[in-house]
Amino acid sequence: MEKIRIETDLSKFVQQVKEDMDRHNIPYDNSYPIELYEKALKILGTCRYGEHRITIHKEFFLCSPNEDLIRSVICHELIHSAPCCRGEGHKGKWKAYANKMTNLTKNEAHVYSIHRTEKMNLLKYTEKTHKNGYGIYCPNCDKIIGIRLKKTRLIKNIENCRCGKCNCKELQVKIIDLETI
């Protein structure tokens, strides 16, 4: 997919989101740097508490024509960084602040739609340099729960991993055709 912005545009988006959050009294931790990453294929962004940083999927950021979605993902992760929301997942105060931001910006220049998850296949933003990938398969759930393009440490050490939904310890790695996803 064609890139429509450059990596340095991230700081502009982050500044816009923080200004909007400040205007609506939505808390966040300003010390968390926000960076681009390109490993996972089903995650638009993450708030990494232990590392005190936020990551946004690089190809999604560079290629997505939907700027409101980009701002919504950044805001979603910034809400996670707020001290009052840490460890709450997508419940409690995090949910209240996400709903508040969504409701208060419906008629503004930047419209936020913050949800627990966003259903999106990031492969459409990823350059088609890989024909096959590594699927992380859970036999209990009977589905692929993660995809990696490269043989990462997680793929090499799958026996040390568990399914996030059912806690299964019997995960398997399967080679999958990325064109069929």
Short summary:
The protein has five helices and six strands, in the order H-E-E-E-H-H-H-E-E-H-E.
Task: Describe the secondary structure blueprint for this structure.
Layout: H1 10-23, E1 34-37, E2 45-48, E3 53-57, H2 58-63, H3 67-81, H4 92-104, E4 132-138, E5 143-148, H5 153-156, E6 172-177
Parallel strand pairs: 1-3
Antiparallel strand pairs: 2-3, 4-5, 4-6
Helix pairs in contact: 1-3
Q: What is the fold-level CATH name, i.e. the topology of the largest domain?
A: Zincin-like
Number of helices: 5
CATH architecture of the largest domain: 2-Layer Sandwich
Q: What class would the helix/strand composition place it in?
A: alpha+beta
Give a written overview of the molecule.
It is a single chain. This protein is α+β, with helices and mostly antiparallel strands and 181 residues long. It folds into two domains: 7-104, Metalloproteases ("zincins"), catalytic domain (Zincin-like, 2-Layer Sandwich); 129-180, no CATH class. The protein is 29% helix and 18% strand. The protein has a three-stranded mixed sheet with strand order 1-3-2. The longest helix is centred in the middle third of the chain and has 15 residues, at 67-81. The protein is globular, with a radius of gyration of 17 Å.
Give descriptors for this structure:
181 residues; alpha+beta; Zincin-like; 2 domains; 6 strands; 18% strand
